[in-house]
Amino acid sequence: MQRVNVIFPLIMHSHELVQQLDVIERDQWRAHLSAHVIEQLPAHGITVFAVTDDASDTAAFSARYGFGLEDCANTIVIRYKKDGGEHFAALVSLGSRRLDINGAVKAELGAQRLSFAKREAAVEHSRMEFGGITAFGLPADWRVLVDAAVMERTQIVMGAGVRAAKLLMSPDVLRQWPRCEVAALTLPAD
Fold first, then answer.
1. Tens-place pLDDT, residues 64-117
2. What stretches of 35-84 adopt beta strand conformation (E)?
3. Buried-exposed string 94-108: b where 16+ CB fall within 10 A, e elsewhere
4. CATH fold group of domain 5-188
């Protein structure tokens, strides 16, 4: 991987921060990301950058790289029952908000019952690393619900399918992606 100094202005606590990222150039994506994730990534508007494994989880990532929790978009895998069958879905929400699982999420999916997928099931069915799961590259029969609050951000960071990389993009990239369903799914975190 070639280290490229890319400067992104970030807003945090009302002052501007400058962050240097280890950008992974597009011609190197195959060496760092899974093919099924790359196949679904839009052609433009996404920056892939390397992170250390110990800073892949949201709180550690935020502290290490200077992105606020309100700009970290987590992809959570849920399992739900509907019409007699069992299904999986991905929920994309900000690290600064709390999913309304038994209210908004359940209603949006039309689920009779739902729960967070167990770690092993999330990894097996998504074919991604836990702590790096992303909305891109998921099985075609999964719904991908993105919380409306994500769309209000200037930029977001989300998993890249592996713990060693992240995706930086404008929420408009998700909005234009055909699999994205935007809905109000969260409450402000306590």
1. 888 999 999 999 999 999 988 999 999 999 999 999 999 999 999 999 999 999
2. 46-50, 72-82
3. bbbbebbbeebbbeb
4. YbaK protein (3.90.960)
